[in-house]
């Protein structure tokens, strides 16, 4: 077997080369040419060509790395089933950022975007979305705030609960229906209404008038903290509220000061006097420049006081206890009551004001008229 045949046999071992003795006949020649004959292979074919798979070896690789993704709330609650991602180390992968109602992703622990370890854990931590606040107001019967508004904050969907004031002077009369509930996307307002504990019942927003049949002591509250000056006889006052205390005493609210219903008589019809019909003043303020005299409102802490359009006139505005005001005019009427006109042209009696130190240009606020 020459070199070429050996080489062919080496690369294709399935081909078998054999020599056959030709039969002797009349035309036999002494030298016979030997020809190679391909014998059938055991599979039934003399030559087995390579298939497509054998020409392109398989490149599929079994996964050797797993990542487990957990979804937890900040309280440790599992929000969804874990996600399992498998792959080959060194290759990139993606995880699902699930969205949950009223939650947002606050942090991711052990995050990586490539398969690095045979086993790894990634944790997505979700926090509840902040909600709109709940604002709580505490009012007395005159709609004055007893304390500063209370702001309650929380997360969406979480429950909230409000509470009434623990006060020795006031008791709850009414509260809105959203005293408790759940935080939402819109601000909610809870309103508590209170009544003085000594008040049994009250008629509010009255519009009648009364006449005093004697000099009457007035109080800052029903039966509490009497004022120094008495209200003069035969003066007419408007009534804004009528209440009865636990001792069954009835009181009138004259717009910031209270009197007992004794020594009073109702006036069925009363026409407010015109300014020119006021009793002629005995004294008048010397300086009428705004800001020349300052005073502080002296009433009840955390309460407001009503001013008037003129002495014994109609109700005008409200002033807070401790508020600084400017006096531009003063009157002492024939009944010896002293009234000050403020720079907004409303009036207030002197015992509701505490005069501050006078300026250099204003040393005598009131003088006698000649």
Automatic annotation (TrEMBL):
Pfam families: MucBP
InterPro entries in the record: MucBP_dom (IPR009459)
Domain MucBP: 67-116, 133-195
Gene3D superfamilies: Putative peptidoglycan bound protein (lpxtg motif)
Keywords, comma-separated and alphabetical: Repeat
Name assigned to this protein: MucBP domain-containing protein
Upper taxonomic lineage: Bacteria, Bacillati, Bacillota, Bacilli, Lactobacillales
């Amino acid at each position: 077997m020459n070199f070429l045949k050996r080489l062919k046999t080496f690369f294709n071992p399935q081909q078998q080369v054999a020599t056959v003795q030709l039969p002797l006949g009349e035309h036999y020649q002494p030298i016979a040419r030997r020809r190679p004959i391909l014998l059938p292979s055991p599979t039934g074919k003399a030559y087995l060509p390579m298939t497509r798979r054998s020409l392109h070896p398989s490149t599929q690789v079994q996964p050797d790395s797993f990542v487990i993704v957990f979804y937890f709330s900040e309280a440790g609650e599992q929000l969804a089933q874990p996600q399992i991602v498998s792959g080959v180390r060194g290759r990139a992968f993606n995880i699902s950022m699930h969205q949950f109602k009223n939650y947002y992703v606050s942090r991711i622990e052990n995050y990586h975007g490539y398969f690095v370890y045979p086993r790894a854990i990634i944790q997505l931590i979700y926090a509840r979305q902040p909600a709109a606040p709940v604002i709580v107001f505490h009012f007395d019967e005159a709609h004055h705030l007893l304390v500063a508004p209370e702001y309650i904050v929380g997360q969406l969907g979480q429950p909230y609960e409000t509470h009434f004031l623990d006060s020795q002077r006031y008791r709850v009369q009414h509260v809105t229906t959203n005293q408790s509930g759940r935080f939402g996307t819109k601000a909610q307002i809870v309103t508590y209404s209170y009544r003085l504990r000594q008040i049994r019942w009250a008629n509010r927003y009255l519009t009648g008038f009364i006449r005093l049949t004697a000099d009457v002591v007035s109080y800052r509250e029903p039966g509490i903290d009497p004022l120094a000056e008495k209200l003069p006889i035969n003066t007419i006052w408007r009534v804004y509220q009528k209440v009865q205390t636990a001792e069954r005493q009835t009181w009138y609210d004259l717009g910031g000061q209270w009197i007992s219903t004794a020594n009073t008589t109702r006036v069925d019809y009363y026409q407010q006097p015109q300014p020119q019909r006021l009793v002629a003043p005995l004294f008048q303020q010397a300086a009428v420049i705004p800001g020349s005299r300052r005073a502080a409102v002296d009433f009840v802490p955390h309460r407001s006081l009503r001013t008037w359009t003129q002495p014994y006139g109609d109700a005008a505005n409200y002033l807070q206890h401790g508020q600084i005001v400017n006096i531009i005019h003063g009157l002492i009427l024939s009944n010896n009551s002293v009234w000050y006109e403020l720079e907004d042209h409303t009036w207030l009696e002197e015992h509701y004001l505490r005069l501050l130190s006078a300026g250099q240009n204003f040393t005598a606020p009131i003088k006698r008229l000649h």
